[in-house]
Structures are given as C-alpha cells and as structure tokens.
Amino acid sequence: MQPWRPNRRAFLGTLSGLALGSLARRSFAQSSARVVVVGGGFAGATCARELQRTGLEVVLIEASPTYVACPLSNLVLASLRDLRSQEFGFDALRQQGITIVQETAERVEPAARRIFLSDGSDLSYDRLVLAPGIDLRFDALPGYDRAAAENMPHAWKAGPQTELLHAHLREMQDGGTVVMSVPPNPYRCPPGPYERASLIAHYLKTHKPRSKILVLDAKDMFSKQRLFQAAWRKLYPDLLEYVPLAEGGKVVSVDPASKTVTTDFGEYKADVANIIPPQQAGRIAHVAGVADRTGWCPIDPVTFESTLQRNIHVIGDAAIGGAMPKSAFTANAQAKCCAAAVASLIRGEQPPAPKLINTCYSLVAPDYGISVAGIYHPANGLLSEVAGAGGISPLDAPDSFRALEATYAMAWFDTITHEVFG
Ligand SMILES: Cc1cc2nc3c(=O)[nH]c(=O)nc-3n(C[C@H](O)[C@H](O)[C@H](O)COP(=O)(O)OP(=O)(O)OC[C@H]3O[C@@H](n4cnc5c(N)ncnc54)[C@H](O)[C@@H]3O)c2cc1C
Asked: Which pTM value belongs to this model?
C-alpha cells in the first residue's frame, strides 16, 4: 500500500469533487472520520498509534524525520551516553498504517476544521490533536535570544544544542566555573535541571575536579528537593553550589559575549553557561488559538479537548496538565487517554473520567537514581493529584537502592521508547 501524501492538488481535488488518488478514496471508505495529529514526540506518536488501533484514519504531521528524545540527554552532557542513542525514526508508525507527513503545521482554521502545512498543502480533519511540545521564550530574559543560545546553550530541546553544551563542557579548562540558570515554573521536566546539575557535577568530579557548578534558581522549592540536596551533600560537597530565589538565585539578564549572568544580587562570570529560559506551548498552539495568556493550553481533563476551540485536543508539554508535571511519562499517559476519548466522541459516546500515572526518575550519578510517582484524575476542571496515591524514594535508602533505581531509569527509557517508536 502506497502512503498517501496530501498536497495542494489533492486538496483542490477534494474541493471540486474531482477524484482524489484511489488510495485516499480507499482510506475514506475504510474509516468514517479522520484525526490529524501534530507532533510526533512522546505525546503525538503515542496518540497516533492508539488512534490508529481504534480503526480511525490517522495522519501524523511531524516536522522532523528523526525524533531526538530529551530523557537521558543529561547523560550525553556528562560524556556517559551518545546522542545517537536518543534518536528515533517513524518507520514503525508507518508500518502500522499511519500516514506520516513530514512538514510543519503552520496554521489552523478551527471553524472549517482545516490545517495548513509548510508545503502549501492543507488537510481537513474531524478532530485535531496538537502535541507540539514547547517553544523556548527568547523574549523573556533580557540578553537571551536565539543567537545567545550559541554561546550560552539551553540544551532544553535535545539535538544540536545538547552537543554544543557537551562540547563547551569538554573544552573548559579544569578549574573553570559552569553557571546554570533554572527558570520559574511551569517548564518542561521539573526535576530535569537538577538532574543536569548533578550529572555535570559528576562529569567535573571525574574529569575536571578543580572546577565548580553554580546553579542559579528562580524559585525556592523544586521537585525531589530533599533527595537531590542530600545526594549533593554526599557526592558533590565542594563542587555544586545551589542558590535559591531567596538568596538571589533569579537570573534577570545575561550577556552572551562575556558569558556573564546577572541576578538581583550580583554578577557571575561563567566559563560555561547553560541558560534554561522560560517556555511556552509550541507555536502552532498559539496560531490555532488554543493557548491562553499563560502561554499554555487549557484543556478539559476528561477529553483533553481545548476549552478555547472545539474539536481540537492538546496533550503533552503544551497542555495545562494541572498537577501533572510536563514529562515524557505524562505525555504518553495523556496521549492514551486522549486517543480513547477522541474515539468515544467520534462514536457519539461520553468518555469516562481517566486516571493517569506519572513516574519521574532522575539520575544524580550513573549509579544513583531517585524517583517520584503520582496518580492523577479530573477534579474541579483540572488534572489533580489523587491524595496519598503517589510516592517518592525514601530519604534514607542504602546505596544499593539508589543503584537499583538508576537501572529502573534506564529500563524505563528503553520500555517507553520501544512502545512509542519501536
Ligand atoms: C534534559 C531533559 C530531561 C528530561 N528527562 C525526562 C525524564 O527523565 N522523564 C520524563 O518523563 N521526561 C523527561 N523530560 C521531559 C520530556 O522530554 C518532555 O516532557 C516530552 O518530550 C514531552 O513530549 P511532547 O510530545 O509533548 O513534546 P516533544 O517531545 O517536544 O515533541 C513535540 C514534537 O512536535 C513536533 N512539532 C512541533 N511543532 C510542530 C509543527 N507545527 N508541525 C509539525 N511538527 C511539530 C516537534 O518536531 C517534536 O517532534 C526531560 C526533558 C529534558 C529537557
């Protein structure tokens, strides 16, 4: 079976009632409704696969031929993993019968239920699922624009930025200072910056022991804080310095030319600077009209349908997930619930309220893992935590327990990437 690739001619053919390709007609005959999914990350790829299994026609629009996964990318920075191990293709999705269009979705007309792509073509949909992930806000931190990211990499989208920050760390002289800036909530992967600080500290300890990492944080509290801070005291006492908001940690501007980072309390000159700027939902969510003034997308927690535009669902990092953190685990869980809800709605049925799980592993060293797990359900219009149902690694666990959790972290990544892309 040839894959059907929508183009302007096919669209005009539909409009005028002329024949589309025979394949397109066949897929319409097989299925009464078409769902278009934008974004082939943990959220979008999962959702497309689940939707296709229900018998719906599914078109996945993904800008890139290869997906580069962020989880475990902090190991790449510490020279403990190759970036190639983070890369995944879409062949398994194609083989499953999903039509994949490698273009950028540029615009949506919600009233007409049409989506417009970068090659000039457009597609109609019965329901649209947006899973575009995040955009970095290059207007939010004075001095930090796209060009600044070349000198002060964010590495918050895995790929060339990860390699750039890794190269900066490798090139730094022993005795240098790494300065890292952590944004206020909400942002992609709440514990991610602290895992990164830990693994950079591990890299310095093993390769450049006279060096230091300074973590400047725009907040006072963070995910798995007590576990991280206990581990830092044990593993990196003289290497890692953490400055919370209350002690002047909030970065207010940067100067990429001199690699200077300024807070309300002072200036820090970095040999390597890692600036993680504030974030928002990916651009298509804004042009589709599903993002609100927060920059993120409000959703119905049962169906993941946008509360701003009918027939458009938003999942993964772009959505306002209530108590659910923005993680790959969350994205995958939301995608499954959203796919089931979309299939129910298309059948004219009311979807049941879902229960979702998130588990987030962090590596403080290659053999030292910690985790947090939560269960969530719709309550008061949001995804809320089911009280008492989650858990966190014990504070006083022995080294063998930490080592076991590190193996769970690696196994989790293999399992989820196999499920989504394998
Ligand atoms: C350093 C780091 C470590 C992390 N560690 C973990 C971890 O240990 N565990 C965990 O669960 N999570 C972790 N995360 C978080 C996780 O990576 C994200 O939460 C997850 O990737 C979100 O998935 P998503 O599908 O919503 O977005 P993404 O993964 O960003 O996927 C979005 C996709 O949409 C495509 N796209 C966007 N706009 C368009 C458009 N207009 N047209 C076509 N395609 C488009 C993009 O090309 C991309 O492929 C980490 C993140 C970072 C940065």
From this structure: 0.93
